[in-house]
Automatic annotation (TrEMBL):
InterPro entries with a match to the protein in the record: ARM-like, ARM-type_fold, Hgh1, Protein_HGH1_C, Protein_HGH1_N
Protein's UniProt name: Protein HGH1 homolog
Span list, region Disordered: 333-353
SUPFAM superfamilies membership: ARM repeat (SSF48371)
Start and end residues of each Protein HGH1 N-terminal domain: 94-278
Family classification: Belongs to the HGH1 family.
Organism: Thermothelomyces thermophilus (strain ATCC 42464 / BCRC 31852 / DSM 1799)
Domain Protein HGH1 C-terminal: 283-336
PANTHER family: PROTEIN HGH1 HOMOLOG
Regions of compositional bias (Acidic residues) in chain numbering: 340-353
Length: 353
């Protein structure tokens, strides 16, 4: 005979919405404490939960929360992420400006993005809501949702911060990087330029996700000239400002820095998250892959900023990242035209992990 808990799981498919609501609400803690109860009968309870994301908002809230918890399991993750119909419903609901559970849907999508096959979403299309004023490509809609929804004006019940994690996980794939680095015809904007402005956002989720997106796209070495060009991506101010504090530099060091870093207020604080600082420093190291990148960083006095970051941030990961970057910036370069001058050293080649 089924246990009481197994019977409760069965009630999430009950035709009476009141019973579904009570069942779903009471099952939320068990999705972390006893997730195996949802995996019986070839994941039938998970199948029922997927239907509930279109239910009454209160029922859907509990169902989505359970799915978020359950998708930490690889079997459940693949079962959910490979369901094209479910993905279409999720994406349609997510961009709806009246969706009450938009943030939870973004969290679920962030979990689903850990399944490599979700990278195909870059080619997926759906009709955008008029309120979003976006493009038929779903990825453009998600990006516009991330930007326009940041202050709660698109959907008063959502900030869409967790889309940063969606983009961060997916940007590990070359085709997603290319999307972020390719100007979109519908608005004539390179997507990474929409993302970079959030490196100093109040939300640590946004900052962390955006830092990872920038780092992942920096693995595309042919795009480095655009990254450094002030008229194209111009990424350097957006990387350097978060790792800069209120330190005072001598006049010569200050005058050589980018204009954005020369007149900072006395209460300027570097990012409080050490992982974010480390990610930005690692991105700078990636951008030293070419001679042009190294020369540019020396020209704009990146070294003093890294020196102070190494001195003032009490974190081993940050210090090691700073030391690796300094080793590259402070070494002697072969003269232009000399044998080997344009060849990368073995320890400088970009290797993805």
């Amino acid at each position: 005979m089924p246990t009481e808990l197994e019977e409760l799981v069965g009630f999430i498919a009950h035709p009476n919405p009141s019973i579904r609501k009570v069942a779903a609400e009471n099952l939320v803690p068990y999705s972390t404490e006893q997730p195996s109860i949802f995996k019986r009968d070839e994941l039938l309870p998970v199948k029922h939960l997927k239907f509930l994301i279109r239910d009454h908002p209160e029922i859907a809230e509990h169902a989505i929360t359970i799915l978020i918890n359950l998708t930490s399991d690889r079997t459940v993750l693949e079962y959910v992420a490979t369901d094209e119909r479910f993905l279409g419903i999720l994406l349609g609901n997510l961009v709806d400006p009246s969706e009450a559970n938009a943030n939870l849907l973004a969290m679920l999508l962030a979990n689903m993005a850990k399944w490599d096959g979700l990278k195909d979403i870059v080619n997926r299309k759906q009709d955008p809501p008029k309120a979003l004023q976006s493009h038929e490509l779903v990825f453009n809609q998600l990006l516009d949702l991330f930007v326009k929804g940041a202050d709660g004006t698109y959907n008063k019940q959502a900030d869409f911060d967790y889309l940063a994690y969606v983009f961060a996980d997916l940007s590990k794939h070359p085709e997603i990087r290319q999307f972020f680095l390719t100007k979109q015809e519908y608005d004539d904007v390179v997507p990474i330029n929409k993302i970079k402005v959030f490196t100093e956002h109040k939300s640590d989720i946004r900052r962390k996700g955006v830092a990872s997106i920038i780092k992942n796209t920096a693995f595309d070495v042919p795009a480095h000239p655009a990254f450094l060009d002030e008229d194209q991506i111009n990424i350097m101010p957006y990387i350097l400002l978060p790792i800069t504090g209120n330190e005072e530099y001598d006049e010569e060091e200050t005058m050589g820095m980018l204009p954005d870093l020369q007149l900072l207020p006395p209460d300027k604080q570097r990012d409080p998250d050490h992982n974010i600082i480390q990610t930005h420093v690692e991105t700078l190291t990636l951008l030293t892959t070419t001679r042009e990148g190294r020369d540019y960083m020396r020209r704009i006095n990146v070294y003093p900023i890294i020196r102070e970051t190494h001195l003032r941030v009490d974190d081993e990961g940050v210090r090691e990242a700073c030391e690796r970057l300094v080793q590259v910036l402070m070494r002697d370069e072969a003269e232009p035209g000399a044998e080997g001058a344009d060849e990368e050293d073995d320890d400088e080649r970009v290797v993805e992990v």
